[in-house]
Amino acid sequence: MVMLDLDDQLSFRLPTGSELQKVIKHSSKDWMALTAVTPCYYDSWALRSSWCSKDWVHDCKTPQEVRDLKKKVRVKYSPNQSPLSVDSAFNGFAIYKAKLLSNVLYSAWDVSKNREICEHVTFHQSLRDLNPKHKIYLCPQLRLGRNVHLLVLSFFQKQIKKD
């Protein structure tokens, strides 16, 4: 199953079917989710791992803490890098093994803390709880490229609005 964030992914070139097949074929057998990277990873709210465990919306107390966390996340990943096992990631595009999705919770509310949370974090926690032998990977081979046609269109739309 593919999950796509339609509100911002129209500005990226999506992987082709053959690119997706290649990524899946060369992935570790224990994957349950393969999440994408963009030219510079941006989805700091969804990302949780041993090296990025804070929720920047709630856990960062100062603007500097937010900047430091986002700097840690906004890394450029090489397509030659191995996939990174993470607790949660999204970045606008992910592939999931559909057979592992039964009874998974998808919610933007953290019941234990009575506050909003990134829906991908609760979804991935539930997925990991139900499937402890499988992993979620941030996959540098699953790349979303810039959609040049839409960038050009956006440029011209901005120019028209100025006139």
Description:
By secondary structure, the protein is α+β, with helices and mostly antiparallel strands. It has one domain (2-162). The chain is built from 4 helices and 9 strands, in the order ββαβαββββαββα. The protein has a 5-stranded mixed beta sheet with strand order 1-5-3-8-4. The protein is globular.
Describe the secondary-structure layout.
Elements: E1 2-4, E2 12-13, H1 17-25, E3 31-37, H2 63-73, E4 84-86, E5 93-96, E6 109-110, E7 115-116, H3 119-130, E8 135-143, E9 145-146, H4 148-162
> How many discrete domains?
1
In total, how many beta strands?
9
Sequence stretches where pLDDT stays below 50 over 5 or more residues: 148-153
User: Roughly what fraction of the amino acids lie in strands?
Assistant: 15-25%
DSSP helix fraction? 25-40%
Broad structural category: alpha+beta
Radius of gyration from CA coordinates: 17 Å
Strand order of the largest sheet: 1-5-3-8-4
Order of helices and strands: EEHEHEEEEHEEH
Largest sheet: 5 strands, mixed
* Mean pLDDT reading: 84
Please work out how many helical segments DSSP would assign: 4
Q: What is the CA–CA distance across the termini?
A: 44 Å
Backbone shape: globular
Core attributes:
single chain, 163 residues, alpha+beta, five-stranded mixed sheet, two-stranded antiparallel sheet, 9 strands, 29% helix, 21% strand, globular
Provide a compact summary of the structure:
This protein is an alpha+beta fold and 163 residues long.
